[in-house]
Amino acid sequence: MSLQEVIKLAKQLSTVDKVRLIQEVAPDIERELTDKLSNFPRQSLWGLCADLGNAPSTEEIDAACCS
Predict the structure, then answer these.
(1) How many structural domains comprise the chain?
(2) Residue 66 within a domain
(3) What's the rounded Cα separation, in Å, for the pair 42 and 48?
(4) pTM for the whole thing?
(5) Is residue 49 assigned to a domain?
(6) From CA 38, how far away is CA 32, in angstroms rounded?
(7) Going by C-beta distance under 8 Å and a sequence separation of 6 or more, which residues neighbour residue 21?
(8) 42, part of any domain
(9) CA distances from 2 to 26, 29, 33, 46, 61 (A)
(10) Residue 24 belongs to domain spanning
(11) How many CB atoms within 10 Å of residue 54?
């Protein structure tokens, strides 16, 4: 059965049955996405802003906002 056929059949469902369909399928989608994202390499949060240089000091922040 093709995706288009499934969509055509799903559109014929009552609103309540559409909600039930979503409730049935959503956990599977969430699980699949979580599995794929857990294998995705992520950059360390410590290194995320490393290219921005040193953070401003408290004095520099005070001077910028309070002058």
Answers:
(1) 1
(2) no
(3) 10
(4) 0.52
(5) no
(6) 10
(7) 10, 13
(8) no
(9) 19, 18, 22, 46, 59
(10) 1-37
(11) 5
